[in-house]
Design goal:
This protein folds into two domains: 86 residues, Phage gp6-like head-tail connector protein (Hypothetical protein yqbg, Orthogonal Bundle), CATH 1.10.3230.30; 67 residues. The strands form two sheets. Strands 1-2-5-3-4 form a five-stranded antiparallel β-sheet, with no helix packed on it. The protein has a two-stranded antiparallel ribbon with strand order 6-7. The protein is of the alpha+beta class. It has four helices and seven strands.
């Protein structure tokens, strides 16, 4: 886990129960809670600061903490960055300040900081999303379909194979079809 970034507001699910019923051919309504847990597990395994992809998928709020400013908004980890929500820093005298973040995209001309770890804190919204047209305070996930399919495939595999090991079959670290779908989105750090 990245110590510089923490999740302030987790993303809402971007694969629904209805999606899973269709993809996994699941008919039992009594399985809904279990299947949603599997979807959450697959999503968490891929998404955000702890995820395999090294990027944010569903819209979420992250907080970057450092001893200095990043160079640019695009340098904030686990993008895509949608917007900067707040920026705070501690000056060389030890006083805390906030920065107006409207239209903030560049950090190259920022005030001096003391330089201790955590002296710069930037909250930002990241992930694949758009603002709700009816309510500008809400965001809707628009996660690329290959990632949605990969989450459904993983959750379905786990649903159908409930044991940690399957005897008599080959074992892959990551099922080939899932890896093929998500590999183009992976960011290596």
């Amino acid at each position: 886990m990245d110590r510089q970034v923490k999740v302030i507001e987790a993303p809402k699910p971007f694969v629904s129960w209805e999606d899973m019923k269709t993809h996994g051919k699941i008919e039992e309504e009594s399985e809904k809670s279990y299947v949603e847990t599997l979807v959450n597990g697959a999503t968490t395994w891929l998404d955000g600061p702890t995820g395999w992809l090294g990027r944010s998928l569903g819209v979420q709020i992250l907080e970057f903490s450092s001893s200095n400013w990043p160079c640019h908004v695009d340098d904030l980890p686990y993008g895509p960055v949608i917007e900067v929500i707040s920026a705070e820093y501690v000056d060389p005298n030890g006083d805390s300040h906030s920065i107006v973040t409207e239209d903030l995209t560049d950090f190259s001309d920022m005030p001096d900081v003391r330089g201790d770890e955590g002296d710069v804190k930037i909250r930002y919204r990241a992930g694949y999303g758009v603002q709700d047209s009816d309510d500008q305070t809400k965001w809707n996930n628009v996660v690329p379909s290959p990632i949605q399919v990969a989450v459904m495939m993983l959750a379905t595999q786990w649903y159908q194979n409930r044991e940690g090991v399957s005897v008599g079959s080959s074992v892959d670290e990551l099922p080939f079809a899932v890896k093929a779908l998500i590999q183009p989105f992976r960011i290596y750090r």
